[in-house]
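From the pipeline queue, job 12 of 40. The input is one protein chain; the requested action is below.

Action: predict structure.
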Amino acid sequence: MMRFNTLFIVLFVGLFSTAQNTEKKKDSIIALDEVQLITMIKKKIETDMKMAVSVDEFLASSDNISFIKRGAFAWEPLLNNMSSERSTITIDGMHVFGACTDKMDPITSYVESNNLDAIDIKSGQEGNMHGATVAGSIDLKRKSTPFNLPKKWNGAYQTGFEFNNKQFFNLANASYSSDKFVADGSLAYRKAENYSDGNDDEVAHSQFTKFNASLGLAYKTSDLSSVKVEAIYDEAKDVGYPALPMDLWLSRALITSATYKQLFEEGLVRAWDTKVYFNAIEHYMDDTTRPENLVHMDMPGWSTTYGLLSNINLQSNKLSSEIQLNAYNNLSTAEMRMYPQDRSERTMFAYSWPAVTTTFAGLSINNAWEISDQSLLNFGGSLGVNYNHSKYVEFNWIFHPGTPQEKTRLLPSLHAGYELNINKFDFSVGGGYGHRAPSVSEGYGYYIYNSFDRYDYIGNPDLKNEISYEGNASAGFTDNKLSIQAKVNYFYIQNYIIGRILSLGSPMNYQSVGVKGYTSLDYSTLFNFSLNGSYSILNNLHWKGTLTYARGQDDNGNNLPFIRPLSYQTALHYKYNRFNFQTSINGDLEQINYSPEYGEDQTPQYTIWNLSADYTFRIAAYRTVVQVGAENILNEYYSTYADWGNIPRMGRNIFTSLKFNF
């Protein structure tokens, strides 16, 4: 243990004096043939520690994203320590809505790391380009191969195995590029069994199987225009959720789009993209794998979305602008079917989402004014119209008699930020104001069981818009060896939507202890702070670290749920010839600001040590990388503030990976 403490001190030394900023790699630039467009090659969706990360694992490396975990699959992303209802998550700007009332199918679960090019994260109202938001936006950008690459065929294949949960995975992608035609596609398959915790005990119902495929075809219609069609198919089967009383039998998603792009060599308008899209999600939760349940329940859900996205880029001297039109129509339906052991004897049926239609149209603008070589002003805003219609409104009338079947809301937003660079220092300050409408569950949910606090939740169609006021600031320093940056933001949210115990109604689920209804608090406050830094100790030895802290309170000074305690990450990376070695330590301090009212309890501090090494070589003309590593080397038994029902995390996990590039 003394050795481990010494290693911890060595790795973490300098965090408070230098802090971490993820190493910035210079982007490669490619000029397309006959098209004056500059395309950036984005950072690969992987981390230094692990090549074959899932999308969730990659997002977790960001200092402003955390996750609620109900199992080993499909984690719910929290941006700025806010629930997913308060953020906008899109795929190439397309709105995709999950079909599970328990939020077991976040949009991040319908893509894979090998079909993504980059992930664009915007904090607060800076994320309003993709719709009304409070926390910000996460846009998952699919791979897009440029025309007329020198090498017509490109691709990669990656396989590997993780020993703790016996996970086997295969990831493959390929692309073809000519002067007029581009095709790119990907395949991914993952299969895992139950994992074991730090006490070497098996965590039942934590297995999963996932298949993902994507295809994109583009054709250059002229020197300055192109059309593109894309599709993603995702299927998950036999997914266990140890924190829930039921599991996933089947989840399927089909996500399609068609895009027309026009470029302009001169003039005010530089580019115009227009996209139409369609996606359909089906999600079937049931508890037939839980024989201990005397009464069984199926919870199927369906979500269908049609959308339009049109984006114009403008450039005039030192002012550049982006104008975007967002419009979509979504139908969300979810059912509850209760029956005894004999499936044919159904005893109860209800709509937990009573066929709710959401139609949204919004216009957003973002401007960047280069005041001087050292200063930049960003400002913009949006205005959206949100319309809801509940087909089976009688379910809402049980708790809200006479509530209208339709509801229309205006959702305005404004934001501004100023950036200043002076020699090696950079500073920024900004603010924002915005509205968001209640989600389908918050507005129209009917007896949605929350296994965290063991209450059934009822929606309220008459909830007011949440209104967010935010402020943010940052300061940083960068030179050849050292990079350090501190960021802070503060949110004051009026009409904060949260569940409160109802005096009427009795629980429908036999495991429930009562009924809660979504209601609006007068306000809540949320504070986020992060300190990031990196330091080049030697030319081939680099250190980086992150420190984050958050605090959330309601209008009575009580703690908000799922607010991350003080957390840290620190890592060393060493390169020797073709070898790379990485070691990292991460953890949370004790969660003392927890919320018993919402089912939270005090979680102890923990520290996790990880280690990996990789070697790059060539097999014929193919660049090949082999990696081996271990997560949670000391087999720590722990559970975090965000683990639903205190399910333990995975114990020691040895992983291997082999990747071919061609």
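Job complete. The mean pLDDT is 89.
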